[in-house]
Design brief:
The protein is an all-alpha fold and 136 residues long. The chain has one domain: Fumarate Reductase Iron-sulfur Protein, Chain B, domain 2 (Orthogonal Bundle), CATH 1.10.1060. It binds iron/sulfur cluster (2 copies). The site of one iron/sulfur cluster has 13 residues, from helix 2. The site of one iron/sulfur cluster (SF4) has 13 residues, from helix 2.
């Protein structure tokens, strides 16, 4: 048979009933405002990290919704948590919290006790400072 340089595209239907949703359920519990997301892409358009890399926050949270977790943890490391996306979101989704909690869930960290690494560092510095003050 002659080949004309094109072929039938693979189906890209997504059956949400087949997706194991425990991670998404957890995320929605931690960030209820994510239920209001309409997938407009405003977050991606305004993203500081997206301006310099191929980081695409809407693609990432959409993949998370679909249970396509491969590589997401690594990709999320590009986010600087600057919060610009949060300011432009027309639905008031708390994107910074969404990103932090996606990272927690993907890393399998206990979501009750986990705190961002930066806070840990600040706590350690404060503890050190307190020790020093006690000695003076
Ligand atoms: S800007 Fe808000 S509503 Fe639009 S895709 Fe991003 S999170 Fe969803
Ligand atoms: S918080 Fe992250 S996703 Fe949002 S604009 Fe800043 S770098 Fe982009």
């Amino acid at each position: 048979m002659n080949k004309f340089g094109f072929s039938i595209s693979q189906g890209r239907q997504i059956n949400y009933d087949e997706i194991k949703s425990d991670k998404l359920d957890k995320l929605l519990e931690l960030v209820p405002s994510y239920k209001w997301c309409i997938g407009c892409g405003g977050c991606t358009a305004s993203c500081s990290a997206g301006g310099f890399t191929d980081f695409n926050i809407r693609r990432i949270h959409t993949a998370f919704q679909r249970g396509q977790y491969d590589g997401l943890e690594e990709k999320l490391k590009s986010c600087m948590l600057c919060g610009k996306c949060l300011l432009v979101c027309p639905r008031g989704v708390n994107l910074r919290s969404l990103i932090i909690n996606m990272r927690r869930i993907l890393a399998g960290v206990d979501v009750v006790t986990w705190r961002p690494p930066r806070e840990d560092r600040i706590d350690k510095q404060l503890a050190k400072q307190n020790e020093k003050n006690k000695r003076i």
